[in-house]
Write a structure and sequence with these properties.
Layout (H helix, E strand, L loop, with lengths): L3 H20 L4 H18 L4 H20 L6 H39 L12 H14 L3
Helix pairs in contact: 1-5, 2-4, 3-4, 4-5
Length: 143
């Protein structure tokens, strides 16, 4: 079911996806504002059990660490989005979104490498895949 928070999250993800696709950057200030909003939302509503939100946030911190040690193979902006989604959705919702996003990304990457003969080092903006993963999670009802 679409609630106001889900519509707002979808709108923000869509806007950030467009930005990521067009300029390959997402303003850190926007992400920090979103993180503050999500934390306030969770504290006020208790929408997700705080333990699940903390676990989701820790997953995002893991991705930030991966970004650091891989010289941004996964960008910091993508990792911050995962951190924010983890706090908002909790660990299980985050894993659902990530599994869907990585699955779709893998299929698109495979198609580009095999059929279109693209290089293996091809890079895609990740926000659109997070957005589709979130959208599918909401529509299927898992989130």
């Amino acid at each position: 079911m679409w609630t106001i928070s889900k519509v707002l999250a979808m709108a923000i993800l869509t806007g950030l996806s467009v930005m990521d696709y067009r300029i390959r950057k997402v303003p850190r200030d926007v992400l920090l504002l979103c993180m503050a909003g999500v934390i306030i939302y969770q504290v006020l509503t208790g929408n997700v059990d705080w333990k699940l939100s903390v676990a989701g946030g820790l997953s995002g911190i893991l991705f930030l660490w991966i970004s650091k040690i891989t010289n941004e193979a996964i960008g910091y902006g993508d990792s911050l989005a995962i951190l924010i989604l983890g706090i908002y959705l909790g660990i299980w919702g985050l894993l659902e979104v990530l599994m869907t996003a990585f699955f779709i990304l893998g299929i698109i990457g495979l198609i580009c490498v095999v059929i279109k003969r693209k290089k293996k080092g091809l890079a895609f903006p990740f926000y659109p895949f997070l957005t589709v993963g979130y959208l599918l999670g909401v529509c299927i009802g898992g989130i």
